[in-house]
Design goal:
- The protein is α+β, with helices and mostly antiparallel strands.
- It has one domain: Beta Barrel (OB fold (Dihydrolipoamide Acetyltransferase, E2P)), CATH 2.40.50.100.
- 21% of the residues lie in helices and 34% in strands.
- The strands form three sheets. Strands 3-4-5-11-10-7 form a six-stranded antiparallel sheet.
- Strand 4 and strand 5 form a beta hairpin.
- The longest helix has 12 residues.
- The protein is globular and about 40 Å long.
Length: 149
């Protein structure tokens, strides 16, 4: 289980930071379960570095319901457009409005200021089992870097 004591605890795989206080998807989203049970969602350091300069973020509206691994929006960079997938099912209760004016916050601070949405999860205990631990996500990145899938 990820370490929720230290918000800044992390390790690196090559140059990619992986925080130990959250869960990950194979599609490079992270989810942090906060003390109130809400789920803060963003994209990983690996994802933002792969996208390069992020210029636009679009999400579903507050109040929208998402299911685990359904699209909740897009991140657009000068290089491409990538879907953002919901790590957990639930209702979007907050959107990071700062990203409207400063989408580059995802590049500068993917795990802190560059979060994308907050979800009120509907079945977190069951669905967390479908996500990767920090160590498993680190192995995924390592395999990607070695040319394996």
């Amino acid at each position: 289980m990820p370490n929720t004591e230290s918000q800044k605890s992390s390790f690196k795989v090559n140059e990619y930071e992986i925080r130990t206080d959250r869960f990950y998807t194979k599609e490079h989203e992270w989810v942090l379960i906060e003390k109130d049970g809400k789920a803060r969602v963003g994209i990983t350091d690996y994802a933002q570095k792969s996208l390069h300069d992020i210029v636009y973020v679009e999400t579903l509206e507050i109040g929208s319901t998402v299911r685990q691994m359904e699209s909740l929006g897009n991140v657009e960079s000068i290089k491409s457009v990538s879907e953002i997938f919901a790590p957990l099912s639930g209702k979007i209760i907050e959107i990071n409005e700062k990203l409207t004016e400063e989408p580059e916050l995802i590049n500068k601070s993917p795990y802190d200021e560059g979060w994308i949405v907050i979800i009120d999860p509907s079945a977190p205990d069951e669905e967390i089992e479908n996500l990767l631990t920090p160590e498993e996500y680190g192995k995924l990145i390592d395999n990607i870097l070695k040319g394996k899938k």
